[in-house]
Amino acid sequence: MKKHIIPIILLGYFGLLFLLLIGLETYWYLYEKPQSQPIAFSHQIHVLKMTLPCDLCHMYATKSISAGIPSVSKCMDCHRAIATDKPEIKKILKYWQNRKPIPWVRIHSLPDFVYFSHKRHLKMGIDCSECHGDVKAMATIRKVRSLKMGWCITCHKSRSAPTDCLTCHK
Amino acid sequence: MLIVDKYILPPSPEHFLILKYILILMLMIHLPFVSMLIGGTFFSVVFNILDKKKQNRIYLNFANDLIDTVAVNRSVGFILGVVPMLVVTLIYTQILYTVNVSAVNFLIYSLILLLLGFTSLYFYKYTFHLREAVFGVHIFSGILGIIFFLAAYFIFSISFSLLLDPGEWRFVKNPVELISYWNAVSKYLYFIVSSLAITGGGILFFFFHWSERKIDHDSEYSGFIKNFGLILALIFTLLQPVLCLWNLATLPEIAISQEVFGFSAIALFLSLVISYMLCAMLKNPEKKLGVHIFSLFLLTFLITALNDQTTFYNTIKEHIVLMAVRAEGLSSELKIRELTGAAEEAQVNVKKGEMVFNSICSACHSFDRRAVGPPFKMVLPKYQNKEDELKTFVRNPSKKNPGYPSMPKLGLKEDEIASVAAYLLQRLQTESQKQDISK
């Protein structure tokens, strides 16, 4: 037993660290890994290639606190005629025919106790990419900013925007 | 970002890949050398001072041999220490073309501190034989060298940490602002711990395998060095994985991918094997495992470099796509110029318009049939000789035909609007001429 004490201690120590690594990976896999969407929608094609503006689909961004996810009929406005033979577009058609919304997986979400208005930020001339990154270059949407309070405050301070608690916590 | 941006061309995706591997190669050449340099100089200064206090011949010999071994000479210091760092800075400048981040400026500060560090360190090395006469200046230069090196790599680590969090790029203008940033702190501590661990491994390799002439006649001295190298390497090899995990836990979400966990698992496994070998050598000092241990340390550095560059490339995924578009745009513009001749500006404009038409307008419009939007032959005639009106419409479309959905406002640049309008009107002319002939 005494002969094997060092390998046992080493294995115990590194085994614990391996468990920690697996724990970190599991957490990332469950909560942080970019989720796959029901339809492989590419912002790269729509925004970077076709130069469509963000508010063509997220049409409430300039008018309301939520930017809004486009309805199936919005997709169909164009895809009634465009790329109708592509498998991903056929999926939209199916949702349209079944009169069902597309169950998009939400990537950017703030806690309920945070009041955030898209309209107010856009009115100040803040570009969508400040908070969402270069979405136009994303084949699959992903979160590229922490969207945590410290980050919001840093930006508010840099623009001399209010940092009073009540600004975001109504 | 930097003044050099205007002299750099946007890199293509293949170019990004080559840069990634050159970066890894440069870091592989540079970091093990400089890590041993920092650890070796630190212990050389410590044993130098200890000898002054306790008058121990072993301490003095070790201080001298250690600095001789790790610093080699000025040429090696320049080739392995300064040149790769310069290349790394230039590569980051190229990769981060047009990105508004201060990290490249920080790397330049780091390079300056590194040069000051090398100057102080070689002063320390070359004044060793004069230490009795100028002990204060000699030790001070050694300490100053370590301070410069620690500051240089502090800035290097935190710059790299900053690169992994684009949310902070716009705000951080001073490296000191990142002191409270956990990922930066963990990266720096990982670097220090790895430096001390590889210094231990380097002592075992360079004193017992690379050149044995300094110690082979003195068993007391060689026993002391072996024990010191083993204990130093073991303590910091055991600490290394803790910091590796801390660094992983503090990485921004955007930088993480499955490969990052894979590299961390390999690094952990390597640390386990190294620790086991070190324990075996501590138990039986006759075992000659120095070469294996040192090679495994180098492999750990390679894995860390691969891991770091993977996290960096995960972060700049979108930037790579945007640069690819710019590089492609630039090359097609050059191609058009080559085809048409630089003088024919108008022709270049029409060619560019055709490209805009093919990549954007043609998704919804055709010349002679209905698609999402109306056919051009139906809507364009009213703009004949009214190019400005057409440009105004493209710039700011409004609903004109009740049978079609309204055209969205496209994100076209002014020169693209002008060229597509010129192309459309010229095409309209060509198409009507064709029709006239066929009639």
TrEMBL record, chain A:
Membrane-spanning regions, if any? 7-30
The record places domain Class III cytochrome C at 34-98
Keyword terms of this UniProt record: Electron transport, Heme, Iron, Membrane, Metal-binding, Transmembrane, Transmembrane helix, Transport
**What superkingdom does the record give?**
Bacteria
Limits of the Cytochrome c7-like domain: 114-170
Q: Name one Pfam family in it.
A: Cytochrome_C7
A GO MF label: heme binding
- What protein name does the entry list? Uncharacterized protein
